[in-house]
Amino acid sequence: MSQSTVPRPPVPRESGGQANKPAPAARKVPRRRGRKDPRLAGGIGLRHRLRRDWVLVAMTLPAVVLLLVFAYIPIAGNVIAFQFYSPYAGDGFFDSMANSAWIGMENFQRMLDDSDFWNAVQNTLMFSSLQLILFFPIPIALALLINSILHSKIRAWTQAVLYLPHFFSWVLVITVFQQMFGGAGLVAQLARDWGLTDSFDLMTDPGFFKWLVTAQVIWKDAGWGIIVFLAALSMVNSELYESAAVDGAGRWRRMWHVTLPALRPVIALLLVLQVGNMLTVGSEQFLIQRTAVGPGASEVLDSYVWNRGIANGDFSYAAAIGIVKGVFSLALVLAANRVAHAMGEQGVYSRR
C-alpha cells in the first residue's frame, strides 16, 4: 500500500509532565476608572502637547486675546438694552452702566411699535435676498471660467483684474457708479446726445436703488469671492477629468459631473454663512447714498442702528436692536445648517 502524503501533526514531547499543561494567561493591565490613560489609547497628554506645540500656541495667543477683547468682553455691554443708559451717569462706561436706571423690556416693546424699524428690516431682507440670488452664483461662474483658461499668464491677469475692485473703498466705488449712471455721467450724456431723454439719473431713483446696490456689490466683491472656489477646484484630481473624457463626456458634462460635485461642500458652507448674514448688509454703502434716494429706500438695520444709537445717542435702543439681530442671525444659521444636513452636506458643523 502507498503511504498517505498528508502531513501528520507533530507529537508534543514530554518534558517532566509539562507537555499538556496550558500556557499561562496574559497579565491583565488594571484600568483606571473615570479617566482613560492616554498612553494606552496611543494619545499624548495635554502637558506633552503644550510642550511640543508651544510655538503654535504662542502664535495663536495674540489672536485669541484680540478675540476676547473685541468680541467676548463687549457682550457684557448688552446689559444697557434693559436700561435707560446715559454715558454721563458716571465716570467711564461701567460706572455709567451701574448708575443707569433699569427699564426692563421697554426698549424691545418700543422696537415692536417703531415703523421705521420695520421699514429697515424690510429693506434689509430685500437687499440680502437680491444679493443671495444674484451675487452668490457669480463667483462660482467666474471660478469655473478662470479654471478653464489654460494659459497661466492669461489666468493670472484675469484674476488680478477681477480682484482689484475689492480693494477700493465704498466712496470710490460709488464715485465710479456716479460717473457712469449719474445725472452728469457717461450714460446720461449719451442718452442726451442721441435724443432719448434729458432726465436720466439712476443714482437718485429710489425704485432702482435695490438693483444699483446689488450691482455695486457684484462689481466690488465678486472677484474676491472666487478665491475659495479656486482653492477647492485645485484639489480636484485631474484623473477624474481624464476618465470622464475617456468615457465620452464633453466639457459641459465634465463640469456637471466632476467640477460641481467637488464644489458642492464649499457651496453649502458658504451658503449657510450667507444666510446667517442676511440681516447684515453693511452700513457705509447705504450711509453714503442715503441723501440721494432718501431713508425710505436706503435705510437698513446697520444704518438704522448707527443713526439711532450713535448719531442720536439712543444707546439702549440700539443695543436692543443688536440683541434681536444676533438672536435671529443665529437662528438663520442653525436653520440653514439643518437644511444642509438634510441635503447630505456637513455645513458649518457636523451632526456628530
UniProtKB/TrEMBL annotation:
Family: Belongs to the binding-protein-dependent transport system permease family.
Name listed for the protein in its UniProt record: ABC transporter permease subunit
Superkingdom as given in the UniProt entry: Bacteria
Keywords attached to this entry: Cell membrane, Membrane, Transmembrane, Transmembrane helix, Transport
Organism per entry: Streptomyces johnsoniae
Topological relation to the membrane, as annotated: Multi-pass membrane protein
A Pfam family: BPD_transp_1
Region (Disordered): 1-40
InterPro entries reported in the protein's UniProt record: MetI-like (IPR000515), MetI-like_sf (IPR035906), UgpAE/MalFG_permease (IPR050809)
Domain ABC transmembrane type-1: 121-336
Subcellular location: Cell membrane
The organism's taxonomic lineage, starting at the top: Bacteria, Bacillati, Actinomycetota, Actinomycetes, Kitasatosporales
